[in-house]
Amino acid sequence: MIKQSIARPPVYRIVLVQLVVTVVIATLFLLRSQEAAYSALLGGLIYALPNAYFAYKAFQYTGARQVSYVLRGFYQGGMWKLVLTGIGFGLAFKFVKPLDLLALFSAFVVVQSTNVFAAKIAKL
Q: Is 4 a domain residue?
């Protein structure tokens, strides 16, 4: 693998924003109940952490000479993002009792919606 001078896009900023949004949503749900707050925190993390892994894998390599590595990183990152998201929901449903489903899914959807603003967040 050859060292490239092409700068990686600042996708880590998107993940940081998603983590901040997760904490804000969990804090807002704390006004409802403690159960809703930790459920919202879990919902946000169930999206943000697999997305962080995807960003790591997808942008691990750069440059035209490493296009096969870049493509492989996108495929592996996308696959593992889905698997880790499924595992996150499975673990939450199995081990977290009581669980506020509205807070869990609301936070998941809101954090996921930050991707709509991804270009502005990362200043791409």
A: no
